[in-house]
Amino acid sequence: MAGLRIGSGSAWWGDRLEPARLNAERGDLDYLCFETMAEATISAAQVRKRRDPDFPGYDTYLDDRMQRVLPGCLRRGTRIISNQGWINPEGAARRIVHWLRECGAPKGTKVAAISGSLITDRVLDLTDTLMEDGRPSASLAGSIVSAEAYMGAEPIVAALREGAQIVVTGRVADPSIFMAPMMHEFGWDPLDHDRLGPGNGIGHVLECGAQATGGYFCDPGFKDVPDPWDLAFPIAEVESDGSAVITKVAGTGGAVTTRTLKEQLFYEVHDPANYITPDVVVDFTTTELEEVGHDRVRVSRISGKPRTPTLKVSIACQEGFVGEDMFFYAGPGALRRAELAKRILEERFRIVGLQAEEIRIDFVGLNAIHGGSAARTGPEPYEIAVRVAARTRTREEALKVGREVDGMAVSGVGMTGKRVPHQDRTREVIGVWSSLVPREALSPVITFYES
Question: How far apart are CA 233 and CA 68, in angstroms?
Answer without folding.
Answer: 15
